[in-house]
Amino acid sequence: MEGRSEEWFETKEMDIRSMPSSRHASLPYRVGVPPKQNFWTEFSSTVKETFFSDDPLHSFKDQSRSRKFVLGVQAVFPILEWGKRYNLTKFKGDLIAGLTIASLCIPQDIGYSKLANLSPQYGLYSSFVPPLVYALMGSSRDIAIGPVAVVSLLLGTLLQNEIDPIKHPFEYRRLAFTATFFAGITQATLGILRLGFLIDFLSHAAVVGFMGGAAITIALQQLKGFLGIKNFTKKTDIISVMQSIFSSASHGWNWPTIVIAAAFLVFLLVAKYIGKKKKKLFWVPAIAPLVSVVLSTYFVYITHAEKKGVQIVKHIEKGINPPSVSEIYFTGDYLLKGVKIGLVAGIIALTEAVAIGRTFAGMKDYQIDGNKEMVALGAMNIAGSMTSCYVATGSFSRSAVNYMAGCQTAISNIVMSVVVFLTLQFFTPLFEYTPNAILSSIIISAVIGLIDYDAAVLIWKIDKFDFIACMGAFFGVVFASVEIGLLIAVSISFAKLLLQVTRPRTAILGKIPRTNVYRNIQQYPEASKVPGVVIVRVDSAIYFSNSNYIKERILRWLTAEEEQLTAAGLPKIQFLIIEMSPVTDIDTSGIHAVEELLRSLQKRDVELVLANPGPVVMDKVHASNLASLIGEEKIFLTVADAIQTCSPKFAEVV
Amino acid sequence: MEGRSEEWFETKEMDIRSMPSSRHASLPYRVGVPPKQNFWTEFSSTVKETFFSDDPLHSFKDQSRSRKFVLGVQAVFPILEWGKRYNLTKFKGDLIAGLTIASLCIPQDIGYSKLANLSPQYGLYSSFVPPLVYALMGSSRDIAIGPVAVVSLLLGTLLQNEIDPIKHPFEYRRLAFTATFFAGITQATLGILRLGFLIDFLSHAAVVGFMGGAAITIALQQLKGFLGIKNFTKKTDIISVMQSIFSSASHGWNWPTIVIAAAFLVFLLVAKYIGKKKKKLFWVPAIAPLVSVVLSTYFVYITHAEKKGVQIVKHIEKGINPPSVSEIYFTGDYLLKGVKIGLVAGIIALTEAVAIGRTFAGMKDYQIDGNKEMVALGAMNIAGSMTSCYVATGSFSRSAVNYMAGCQTAISNIVMSVVVFLTLQFFTPLFEYTPNAILSSIIISAVIGLIDYDAAVLIWKIDKFDFIACMGAFFGVVFASVEIGLLIAVSISFAKLLLQVTRPRTAILGKIPRTNVYRNIQQYPEASKVPGVVIVRVDSAIYFSNSNYIKERILRWLTAEEEQLTAAGLPKIQFLIIEMSPVTDIDTSGIHAVEELLRSLQKRDVELVLANPGPVVMDKVHASNLASLIGEEKIFLTVADAIQTCSPKFAEVV
């Protein structure tokens, strides 16, 4: 086959050589100039691609008016759509899954509300109302809604920067509801304005680093309960926490607490390990926390260990969520602070929920509309803020349990919600003797799963820059604070995007032997350069941010080539071909840069040739008169075509 | 020729048809996997491309140690290098150019210092020290250094937001020097850290809009002097200014002032027109301002028009720049404010100077190192801040005059500086009777040139998004303030860059008749789709910000194609080929997205095929194990190769 291909090309080149000299008249193919687009068509298509890229109105097309109304209501409340097909088999799955995640969420909720510096019942409240709202409006079938560790920590840190939760518990709680309200508003607004893509700016790598750092920070915070320390730092960085721990080592550690905590932590980790080894035993780690709570509570109750310094939960308010609309700050200084905190917490909560939704939708192969999902999450948090809940979102660990327990629809969230309701109504007094240490152990064993070591290794393998973002976020959270970590993650992510459009790659192309294909000579070392011609490929749109760089980089390639040729005593460069395939767009600065390049080349007696400019570039090259400056006949469909004109002799050589 | 090419391809396709079925074993060409790069090599090459893309140490290579030292000193003080070749012919050119720009700068300086709310001598001071420093350190041969309108206005606006220049002139001046000092520090730091490329983020379009808006604002401000109004608004937006003018129309306008101002404005504009029509008469508009000043001063002196309400300059401090090091705020509240103002003013001043430097260097075809230039400008402003100067930079209008007057080197700046020195020492009392109205006319006629109407039209033609940035900056400056305009310009510019990496273009490709080339069917409507195959080209690196979009967009293309096929009763799609030529990079999120795409396609019984992944992508596809998931044999060098495997029958059709 390879032998044959050589033959073809030889035949082809022979034909070219035997052609009349006026090759320009019979170019193989003209570069297409797309029909001039109306400004509004262009503008509206950009808007559509940006905000409606998923074509959300596709199902509404060609429907009757009443049908459109029904579809519209169903779009807001998907339960009306899938509810019609709901049956007993599905309910069986949902019931088991719902009971499992309920047993997991109750101890977690009590622990997480401590991270947010709130009383234990607020965690339970947040597992009652939000899951109900989500079940009506959400479209993920596998997500488990409720308070989560990272958002609780973030909210707690941001809130205590403003108000001391111990000195002013009432104002603190009001600000928490305010932040929750605006977190919901932020989420719903992003969804309604179809700006959901903004959360994509938090890169996967940054999220991995941030979550890992947050897990470490949360685990460190739990050492307070785990070791029974009373005076603990309020800072979350590892250095302050370690100082706090070691300074209290001689007198502040409570040994009975440590024994209980360590014993149950071992139990929880063993349960986790069993669940990991045998997928069928997923329920072991799922119910282990509740079992620990029951056992340890009973143990403290009979031994009265609380008199030996083992701290206990003491009191959880009985009864379901009291209304809290009137507690939200709608005026005053705290309004703005609530908005800011809500914005940050809302976006982080979104990131987590959307990632979960996408992951499980991918596994079961159904579609999730990110923007609709955000509206559902926003509505749920707005409703939550009015019923004494703090920011709820999808929990990684509980969603995984939900999935493995065989949930079918969001009904499993309703089941969980009912169990939490019963707990709030009847069982809260039972938690009186629950030791705080057990909650710490439960949280530690839960957050360990957030440290995704494998993902970090994969990131290192694939993309070093991503790894820097990941580590920046991780160390930022661990050594400074969650906000700083977040800021580092976002900044590095943005820097990466901007670097791409500031310093795009360029490559010298050569002809691949026995083909008509020109490729990067770094990737294909066997590709041969064409004598007298430099072929440069520019790997990015040419925009103001890179136009000067690209111009100078191309001239630098040319200078380097010329120096080599002069050193070797070879003839000088006559043509510079720019392969424009990857140049998807060019703006005014880009056009100017190409003009300047053209002038510099003319002074050096080098002709500029373009190969394969795309539709947008062709349009602008014509609009700006650059086409006539370069010469229409010097714009080719492919590099091969350009070479046939610039260096017909090269064909004979190969 | 076209007939023949058909023949070739038929022969070629015949060969393929007659080939054994095990085509995979004899692929035309394997996609190259670049050799694995060491992390540090990769990292250092990225750093080099980012910060040292212009290879500034090229001339230092292979030099002796003492030679390197000499080159190093020459790099900081280019005058040592070009000074050796300086001769009388060059000096003749510089002398004439220097005298011309001096005559232009003296009246402008006095006017511009008013824009900065400073006494007239500070403008002159800023045309004495900075040009001298620049002449030693700068590498542009054509730039004319001194105060400029836009920076003066910007500085004046920002400073008076902090301190009232009339009530607290001393503190105001101190803050001005502080801002100048930190403007210099900013400029020098950007240069030393080789972050000069950051100013490229102010797009050409945004600068055009900003300059135009600033010109209008400055011209409007001049109506105070032009109409002889005493109580004038401090705001710079057009609405406040217009209200201020019309409310004082009945009693506040001074008619003798208006007559003088209008008469000389006409004179200046006529001079400008003459200069534009006949390039040889460039000196007419250049000396017209000084002539106006002399004539109008003499006129006021003999008629004593100042007694009829014509405001005059009154007093300009005699003598050269007093030292001002001790006046710079190095502590206290004003330090931070000075840093902020200096940062903004410094960057705007840089943008102007670098644009001028590049323009004239391009015209005379010499190289300018942007980063070295920034160090020179920074050093000049630091020196200036210690000698009672405010922020100086390159002036568009004076640089153009300098160029046309035949300047050869930066010596013309020294000549100008000497003239300003003589003026400060001996001639300032002569300006006592100079009417303010004349200065207003001079400024109006100078800033009119900043409104680049043609550039705006060109921007509209080439790129609508750029035009929005341009107009945003323009109207922001005119209707709000210079800061708001600047903020709008920068935000829109960034939004554009981010949009590109968030919503990249994708295109469906088809085979161009009688070739082996596959191109966008929108650009080439005659290109034909391959039955059973969808070929999608992705026009951007696949990063976290767009990976989800790209995945969903490709699936949407597929769905749309399948719907069409089903409607037409044609066989379904079997292969999805992604043309990866423009995909210059992929990160972890991108790899995940491709994996998810692969899974979705497998569920639809569609095979994923990649064409022409670049070196970086191949590297990562291998590092992440994606290569084996897709199958090495489904990665091709070109779309044509892929089609030969996927749809060999298609060859017969064409």
UniProtKB/TrEMBL annotation, chains A, B:
Domain STAS, residue spans: 523-646
What residue intervals traverse the membrane?
175-195, 201-220, 255-274, 281-301, 341-363, 375-397, 403-424, 436-460, 472-495
Keyword list (alphabetical) reads: Membrane, Transmembrane, Transmembrane helix, Transport
Q: How does it sit in the membrane?
A: Multi-pass membrane protein
Mind telling me what this protein is named? Answer: Sulfate transporter 1.3
Q: Which locations, inside or outside the cell, does it occupy?
A: Membrane
Keyword Transmembrane tagged: yes
Cellular component GO terms held in the UniProt record: membrane
Say which species the protein is native to: Salvia divinorum
Q: Which Pfam families match?
A: STAS (PF01740), Sulfate_transp (PF00916)
* Top-level taxon of origin: Eukaryota
Entry keyword Transport: yes
Q: Which SUPFAM superfamilies match?
A: SpoIIaa-like
What the entry lists under InterPro entries is as follows:
S04_transporter_CS (IPR018045), SLC26A/SulP_dom (IPR011547), SLC26A/SulP_fam (IPR001902), STAS_dom (IPR002645), STAS_dom_sf (IPR036513)
